[in-house]
Each structure stands twice: as structure tokens, then as C-alpha cells.
Amino acid sequence: ESAVVFHQVALGGADIVKDDELLVSHPWSHFVDRVREHEQAARAAYEHTGHRTLYFVNITDRPDRLVANAYRAVEAGASGLLVDHVTVGVSALAMLADDPAIDVPIMGHLAFAGAMYASPRTGVSSHLVLGKLPRLAGADLIIYPSPYGSLQYARSKHLRLAQTMTD
Questions:
Q1: Largest CA distance in the chain
Q2: Which of 4, 89, 107, 123 could form a disulfide with 141 if both were Cys (CB 3.0 to 4.6 A apart)?
Q3: Which residues of 40-68 are buried (b: 16+ CB within 10 A; e: fewer)?
Q4: pLDDT value at residue 121
Q5: Residue 92 exposed, middle or buried by CB count within 10 Å (0-12, 13-18, 19+)
Q6: Residue 7: pLDDT over 80
């Protein structure tokens, strides 16, 4: 069903579609099966429009299984990988980014990051957790909160994070 929706948004000109950060692999939706279905939809849309839409499949798992998941996804034709870098750790993200066999873009997702930066008195600065550390680890793209999104996030923090990722 998600591949059908993917095809529709690809026909509409979307550049990127990502898995939900909580969806990895279930008996009813294995990540390798999703890669095959979504990449087939991407090819069909490309043949119709000439525009390529990338699909970022969520491969988040324990670090000891993360590389194997990446290899399986790439072998199945994945055009991008999604990793919840806070839950697996930035070193696990770096491990993927440093591997020459993983030759597709990697998107870092902020799932669970609020537990590290949300308190004004404790934690790590959000521009480090959500920007600098995942970029240094090799994330090509990063999901982060905006001042007008579902997470309450100050505009000043948003601007500092955006600047950190472009430095």
C-alpha cells in the first residue's frame, strides 16, 4: 500500500520519500520487500515523468545488525537509507557512512533526540545532537525539528542548527 502512495507522490514530483522512523522490519512489512516495491514504483514514475524520486528505507537496528541491513537494502536496489542515529549512536552511523560498499545517501533521523536536549538545564545542545554530530558521522541528510512543526522548538535553535549543518 505504501508503494502505491509512493508512486502517486513520485508522479507529483516529490524528490524524497522516507519510511516512518518507527517502521523497520515486521512480518507484514520487511524492509527488503519495501525496497523492492518502492523502487519498482520509483522506476515506473521515472518512466512517466523523467523525474527520479528517492526512497529512504529505514534500516535501524542494533549496531551488530545495522551493516547487514544496509548491505541487504543496497543489494535489493535501495536509493537511500534512513537511520535513527540517536538510538543506534553516531558511531554506528559513521560505520555505515565509512563503508564504500554502501554507496547510497544516508538520512539521519532525530527519533529519541528530545530525551538528550529538551531540558533547558541538562543534556547536550540540540545543534550538536541533531546537526554537527550526525554530519560529522557521515549523514548526507538529516531530519530535524522546525519552529512550526509538531515539536515545540524555538526559532533561534532552528536557525543555529541550520547554520551548524552548513558550516
A1: 53
A2: 107
A3: ebbeebeeeeeeebbbbbbbbbeeeebbe
A4: 73
A5: buried
A6: yes
Cell (9 digits) for 8: 502517486
> With contact defined as beta carbons under 8 Å apart, do 53 and 6 qualify?
yes
Query: Cβ contacts of residue 128 below 8 Å, gap of 6+?
Result: 164
Give Cα 120 distance to the centre of its chain. Answer: 27
For the chain, give me the number of helices (H) and strands (E)?
A: 9, 5
pLDDT tens digit string along 14-55?
999 998 887 788 888 899 999 999 999 999 999 999 999 999
Helix (H, G, I), strand (E, B) or coil at 114: helix
pLDDT tens per residue across span 75-118: 999 999 999 998 899 999 999 999 999 999 999 988 877 777 66
Single out the residue of 64, 105, 100, 99 nearest to residue 83, CA to CA.
105
CA distances from 73 to 38, 43, 70, 101, 132 (A): 12, 16, 5, 11, 26
* Long-range Cβ pairs for the range 98-101 (8 Å, 24+): 98/138, 99/67, 99/70, 101/71, 101/74
Distance, CA of 129 to CA of 137 (rounded, Å):
11
